[in-house]
Write a structure and sequence with these properties.
Length: 80
């Protein structure tokens, strides 16, 4: 089973023309995530990420709902 996790974009790096990357916060963890396939994201936006790649943009309400569901299932922020 695949699981996408919501995170908030902290910064965007476009210095490499081959791949657009972002620093994304998942709870207390911060990871580098490829946002190459998303055209309309900016700092502060929430994305759904899986295996280091942003799959879609989501609104804050949906992101919080998903994070709360993961917490209720016993998944912690440190698990990502």
């Amino acid at each position: 089973m695949c699981l996408a996790v919501p995170g908030r974009i902290l910064s965007i790096d476009t210095s490499n023309p081959d791949i657009k990357m972002a620093r994304v916060q998942f709870g207390e963890a911060v990871r580098d995530i490829s946002i190459q396939w998303l055209d309309d994201v900016k700092v502060g936006d929430y994305i759904m990420a899986h295996v280091g790649t942003a799959l879609s943009k989501v609104d804050e309400k949906d992101a919080e709902y998903t994070l709360n569901a993961l917490r209720e299932m016993g998944e912690t922020d440190e698990a990502y």
